[in-house]
Amino acid sequence: MIMALSVDYKEGVLKDIRENPEMAKEYYREAVKASINGETDVANVMFRDLVNAGIGFQRLAKETGISAPNLHRALSSRGNPTLKTFGKIAASISAFLGFPNPMAVFS
After folding, report:
1. Does some domain include residue 72?
2. What single string gives the DSSP state of each residue in 49-103?
3. What φ, ψ does residue 38 adopt, rounded to 5°?
4. 3-class secondary-structure state, position 37
5. Is there a domain that residue 2 lies in?
6. pTM (2 d.p.)
7. Which pLDDT band, with edges at 50, 70 and 90, does 10 fall under?
8. Residue 8 in 3-state DSSP?
9. Quick one: CA dihedral 62, 71, 57, 46, positive or negative?
10. Considering its fold, how many domains does the chain have in total?
11. Residue 54 counted as domain residue
């Protein structure tokens, strides 16, 4: 007999990101690496998780100057954000997580 998980996996990840700043930073690092490695679909899901668990789409829209619907599209599993859009998203998320700049992820 297979037992159902008591907490949805995605909700568990979001909870961990919300409650553990070090995990959130590591998740961000992995999202950036996935993006650099051309794993756009994986990176988009991870960035969307970070937005949903922390900064939120409304605040991200305000900080980036990109509308929330466009951010949702860019970070969808089929999204393909431009480098400019990706840079704005990464900069806002990294600042929210406490990195001094987006490249500090590699320090």
Report:
1. yes
2. HHIIIII-HHHHHHHHT--HHHHHHHTSTT----HHHHHHHHHHHHHHHT-SSGG
3. 80, 10
4. coil
5. no
6. 0.85
7. confident
8. coil
9. negative
10. 1
11. yes
- How does pLDDT run across 36-59, given as a tens digit for each residue? 999 989 999 999 999 999 999 999
DSSP 5: P
Q: Which residue type does 31 have?
A: A
The answer, yes or no, to whether residue 100 has pLDDT greater than 90, is: no
Distance CA 87, CA 4 (A): 39
Short-list 3, 4, 77, CA closest to 42: 77
Nearest CA-CA partner of 102 in 83, 84, 81, 88 = 88
Asked if the structure places residue 1 within a domain, the reply is no
The pLDDT of 14-26, averaged and rounded, is 93
Domain of residue 18: give its range.
9-106
Tokens 């001094």: give the residue. 100
